[in-house]
Amino acid sequence: MSAVAIIAPIVVSSWPAISAAVASAAVSMGFTVAREVAQQGLNQDLRAGSNTVTLDVPNCSAVTGTLGRDQRIQLARDGVNVEFSRDARGRDSVCVTGEGLTDEQLRAIGDEIAGRTVQHYVLAKLKSEMAGKGMDLVEETVEQNQAIRLRVRHWQN
Amino acid sequence: MKAREYEITIGPTGEVEIHVEGFQGKGCVEAIRFFEQMIGQTQELRHTSGYYEPDEDVTLHNQQRH
Known about the structure:
The complex is a heterodimer of chains A (157) and B (66). By secondary structure, chain A is α+β, with helices and mostly antiparallel strands. Helices cover 28% and strands 42% of the residues of chain A. Chain A has 2 helices and 9 strands. A 6-stranded mixed sheet of chain A has the order 2-4-7-6-5-3, with helices on one face. The two termini of chain A are 18 Å apart. By secondary structure, chain B is α+β, with helices and mostly antiparallel strands. Chain B has a two-stranded antiparallel ribbon. In chain B, β1 and β2 form a beta hairpin. About 8% of the residues of chain B have low confidence. The interface between A and B is large, with 39 and 45 residues.
């Protein structure tokens, strides 16, 4: 072994890439994708009569040239609704709504899905780039803490 | 042909830990840079004993004079 590095992810992506990561993260957390829509304005019907919190997604931004309209993907699980959206300026946010849940509980769900979205975005990007470089993924496992571990082999001259 | 091995752990918030194996010398830094360009910004880098071995493309010639 020669080195160990810790890398903080920076997500600069188009909407299709980020929405694919949201969907993949959602499934891993037991959510279902309710719908994906592109529309102006916030979807009020999810929020009526329930507690709601909205969080920014850190280190996440749109690829220049792909902005211009609001885009959102809606997820649902056990009475909790999550809307992951990108506004016209490219800002990503997560809105969590749930009846009978405190703001703290909703915030924890939002933080988790934001983190897991970044995790799944990084996973997809790594797999795609490594395949392009001829690297072989020999093992993929999910740890108890939901970390994803990859073992990769690369033959070089 | 030499086998390079990478163990990559993507945490639940997206942070990535990479163990680079199979390199001698500073080749591991190039490997880390490849992943950094792909993912984000290196926050911490620790070298293990292999880093201090001679680079693989350097041939050493020792001459002893009596």
